[in-house]
Please model this.
Amino acid sequence: MRSDDVILFLTATLDVYGMTARRTGRTTAMLAAAQPGDLIIVATENEMRRLRKKLAATRDDNKIQVVAMNPQRLNHLGSMRRNYRAIHFDHDWLERFYQNALSSASSELYFFSQECTRSPMLAPEPPREASFELSRFQLGKRNLPFE
Model:
């Protein structure tokens, strides 16, 4: 099995998880678990505004901070270091973070293999879309003899 195949399977698995976990109460549970002095990290400005409004409507205090942070730039913490009781990552932020990590791992393996081989490798095949991988796991009748 090639490393490309592993990355594609992991990406498809992450996509399936994201689709099946929608509307399951993850955000509500995260907001309920947050306490004064906590930080909630989200991926977009719109989500930050939405969660701030939701917190303002359900909580008396405003001591829970919500910030938007690019999941690809985790090393830019600035003044955020050690100022919070706990940090909660929004599920969308985590999914984007893991997708980026998988993409980075794939690139690193490709460049590593380029550096370690004597002859240049053939150009890699274009990556298959996650939808192709997902189609391999379609639910429903597949016209198999035992169905």
Q: What stands out?
A: Helices lie at 3-20, 26-33, 45-58, 91-116, 130-135.
